[in-house]
Structures
1.
Amino acid sequence: MPTSTRSRKTPTASGSAEALAKLEPLPENLFRVPVDLLLTDHYRQTLVSEALSAIVTAPHAAGTPARAEKIAHFLESDLVHHMNDEEEALGTRLLACAREEDGVPLLLARLRREHAAIRETATAVQTGLETLAVRRRLPDPGTFAAKAETLVAAVRATIAWQNRLLLPLARRRLGNADLWSLGQTMATRRGISFPA
Ligand SMILES: [Fe+2]
């Protein structure tokens, strides 16, 4: 998935609309290949980060309320599910099957630390987005912009190392039974029937 940050464009209001137009629901068949699903979800997070950056650039552009609502919903549902998937469902299985040299306890400690910071910042950003979604002015645009930029940077940073280290490790170590049950857990969390 194209999660590279090397050629990032300057965010614009139309860029926000374009990014969110590409945001598709997770295909249900990916729950059978849960590591691919996590990778796809990282790409979706990159799209939402682009859209959020564009809102910071032009918070009162036409179309902002609908986009702000969509991003707020993603932060409170998709992103939360994803972080819980990695910390609980994936982390537990990796701890059980990894080798000592994989350093999984350290990787999971880093994951939890970064996710805790993301959860805290996302909550503040969500409040600002909900204000914009009902066409009201932000009480403190500077603080909203700073929090949003912090969130975007944190999400991009954690995606980068997870794609480089964590997900490849999961591919190497998890067996078919682990992958199957991981996918089932992730589907159940979202109220989705695991595809037969
Ligand atoms: Fe992740």
2.
Amino acid sequence: MPAIVDKIAETLHIKKHEHPDQSSPAASSSTADPSSAPASATDAASTTPVFDHEKVKVFFVLGGPGAGKGTQCANLVQDFGFCHLSAGDLLRAEQNREGSEYGELIRKYIREGQIVPMEITIKLLENAMGAELAKPHTTEGWEDGRGRFLIDGFPRKMDQALKFDEDVCLSTMVLFFTTTEEEMLKRLLERAKTSGREDDNEESIRKRFRVYKEQTMPVIEHYSKQGKVATIDATATIEEVHQKAKEIISKILAGEIGHNITA
Ligand SMILES: Nc1ncnc2c1ncn2[C@@H]1O[C@H](COP(=O)(O)OP(=O)(O)OP(=O)(O)O)[C@@H](O)[C@H]1O
Ligand SMILES: [Mg+2]
């Protein structure tokens, strides 16, 4: 298995330098001011992230299962023109995409109950970001090769966090939605009635709580030490939580918050 992982990593690394779509139109245009272009993989040293965090704002959205990440992301997309990327959705889509070079591998890892190698998840995120930046945009926050992303449910483990920040784009902030396990369980059991998600059953939910505590909480602590965590109490109604999140993001985008904050 490690040999396969090495091979994937190697392949992905090489692929990284072949994708022209990782840069924005501004970056690929011959008339563009080079200083306004995001750094691209082609001109980057191996330790330079693909995207320049001064122009590309990445907000990680974390919180326990059922805390309301997806719900709030949908609201924030409307408010601020974010591109919302969910790592889980990208993996599922890639697995089902005809002609995917990673589909079989993803299927194999999932079938064997293993975590998909982070290189694949990160590469999917990077590709999705590159594709979004390459589209023409007229909305605020997307001019001149700029962009703003909500990355939902990622990074779930420390290694993913470190690798993304180092290789793809240094994250701007973590939105951390928090509430009690009791509340999350209640929400997920309710969602189970219509979600069709295989993991929306009590046994899976309990396992997800455990994995979240063991693997994702250290990620929150890591970013907290860097002063990059906005903790939002997600116990209130969807609209109340939305208003709190909206207020905080407005301030972060205006450059008014550069430290941990709690709302
Ligand atoms: N503040 C809230 N009050 C009551 N219900 C909520 C609230 N926020 C979200 N919900 C509901 O709880 C359920 C879980 O929300 P959501 O899918 O957004 O969670 P999530 O954090 O994305 O979960 P997962 O990690 O499983 O993807 C949904 O049915 C949603 O409608
Ligand atoms: Mg979700």
